[in-house]
Design a protein that fits this description.
single chain, 515 residues, mainly alpha, Growth Hormone, Chain: A, two-stranded antiparallel ribbon, 21 helices, 1% strand, MFS transporter
Length: 515
């Protein structure tokens, strides 16, 4: 095992405590303090909008961080300098607890700082391995994901209590201190890391090959791919023009999705035209990336469901009964935000359970738990968790007082889905990415989270429409119950499509060669 791995794992544990510490109390803080000037009937919707807009930023800026690392600074320097911006963002949250603009500035700095961390720490872990020890990489990726949830567990358990008992300055200040520690630990290992230098300007880069494919002419043939990409550009401009009615975040993110989707389709239609102008390896590399992006696109519904445990599920928990519990004589009642601690503690249990029991059992009965099979099953399990949470909401809408402990079942289903999708996806993204583009590919992995939260914003905006609201009212469901069953159906349909695509996908091995 590479000796430098403990520095990266320790850094990630502290950073995840800092991130989830502030993230998991964000919705309760918005509802109880920062958004009190908003009428109570609109406060929940606005809190969800702020939360998911923040998450969109957190997972959008990795595009920038991945590009900077791959072309200019390298992974280590990018992670370190963006971490300092991250620390400044935490400081703003603690200082500007009663200042709307100052607090939003802090959220923006954290989102921007995350852009240099999220896509690169995972890739940086992969860089520490080569063909001689790549068999240990899966163990480290699992340990990496385990430590993320170790930090998240204690943050989810403690920060709601600090928010309640000591106020937002302390509750947001403690995660900032942990982020500063994370940055220091990462710096301490600087001389032990394997530093893969940023890629030199490459005439056979992904963007160069894609541009050649779209613009190249073939004798006697039109350029249908270019027309498709052009249609996507026009649709993106139309989306941006809808900013006054949709809001900037929805309009801009939709424009980005349209550009990527139509551009990718256009490139795939004309990719063979790039041969000759570029090497065969470069052309096949672009084809590999496009196939990976299809997988990423179909994972976006999972993130729609997963990230709402910190918004929609907390809103539901606020209206539930929290019974008095007793452990070894210590009596307590769970705060709504503390229910999120169920997720990381289950992750820490399920990762070793899967490796020791579930996956060997699957192999014993002749079913190989390939990454794509695991991810497809994970999406389906997330859909089932939302069926359960929707049934609980129907129970509550009927006027019954429901214990908050009923949320344990959907949390268990969602967490099992998370382990199968997210932990597997980190390994899949690194192993499938061509060597010069590992940082940017992992950025696209995180962009899938942005798109998942975009679906949430679109649905939230849709239910506020008078026509849609009237139709929901006529269905006999409350607005929140309708959204729960809608997202469950959305994920179930995509899980079926994912299974069909997984059958055709051919895995590759892009781990670094022996030095």
């Amino acid at each position: 095992m590479p000796r430098q791995i403990p520095y990266i794992i320790a850094n990630e544990g502290c950073e995840r405590f800092s991130f989830y510490g502030m993230r998991n109390i964000l919705t309760p803080f918005l509802l109880s303090t920062l958004l009190l000037f908003i009428p109570i009937g609109d406060r929940t919707t606005e809190a969800k909008h702020v939360f998911h807009t923040f998450v969109i930023g957190v997972y959008f800026f990795p595009l920038l961080g991945g590009w900077i690392a791959d072309r200019f600074w390298g992974k280590y320097k990018t992670v370190f300098w963006f971490s300092l911006i991250y620390v400044a963002g935490h400081a703003c949250l603690a200082i500007f607890e009663n200042n709307l603009n100052g607090f939003y500035l802090g959220l923006a700095l954290i989102a921007f700082g995350s852009g240099g961390i999220k896509p690169l720490v995972v890739a940086f872990v992969g860089d520490q391995f080569d063909q001689t020890n790549k068999n240990r990489a899966k163990v480290v990726f699992d340990a990496f994901y385990w430590i993320i949830n170790f930090g998240s567990f204690f943050a989810s358990l403690l920060m709601p209590v600090f928010l309640r008992d000591y106020g937002p300055a302390v509750a947001f200040g403690i995660p900032g201190i942990l982020m500063a520690i994370a940055t220091g630990v990462f710096w301490l290992g600087r001389k032990k890391y394997v530093h893969v230098p940023p890629a030199a300007p490459n005439p056979d880069s992904f963007s160069s090959v894609a541009r050649t494919a779209l613009l190249a002419r073939a004798p006697g043939q039109s350029r249908p791919g270019l027309m498709v990409a052009g249609a996507g550009a026009v649709a993106a401009v139309i989306s941006l023009c809808m900013t006054p009615s949709w809001g900037f975040v929805i309009a801009a993110c939709t424009a980005l999705v349209l550009l990527l989707a139509f551009g990718g389709i256009g490139v795939s239609m004309q990719l063979e035209r790039a041969r000759g102008a570029h090497t065969d390896a470069a052309v096949e590399g672009v084809r590999s990336v496009l196939r990976i992006l299809i997988v990423f696109a179909m994972i976006t519904p999972f993130w729609s469901l997963f990230d709402q445990k910190a918004s929609t599920w907390i809103v539901q928990a606020n209206s539930m009964h929290s019974p008095l519990l007793s452990i070894f004589g210590w009596e307590f009642t769970l705060l709504p935000a503390q229910m999120q601690a169920v997720n990381p503690i289950l992750v820490m249990l399920l990762i070793p359970f899967n490796n020791i029991a579930l996956f060997p059992l699957m192999r014993a009965v002749g079913v190989t738990p390939t990454p794509l099979r695991r991810m497809g099953l994970g999406i389906a399990l997330s859909a089932s968790s939302w069926v359960v949470i929707g049934m609980i909401q129907l129970w509550m809408d009927g006027g019954d007082q429901v214990s908050i402990l009923w949320q344990l079942l959907p949390y268990a289903l969602l967490t099992l889905g998370e382990v199968l999708v997210s932990a597997t996806g980190l390994e899949f993204a690194y192993s499938q990415a061509p060597a010069p583009m590992k940082g940017i590919i992992l950025s696209f992995w995180y962009l899938a989270v942005t798109v998942g939260n975009l679906w949430v914003l679109i649905v939230n905006a849709g239910v506020k429409n008078d026509v849609v609201g009237g139709w929901i009212a006529g269905s006999g469901l409350s607005s929140i119950a309708f959204q729960m069953f809608f997202f469950a159906a959305f994920a179930a349909v995509v899980a079926a499509l994912f299974a069909l695509y997984a059958i055709r996908y051919k895995m590759v091995d892009n781990y670094r060669k022996t030095a």
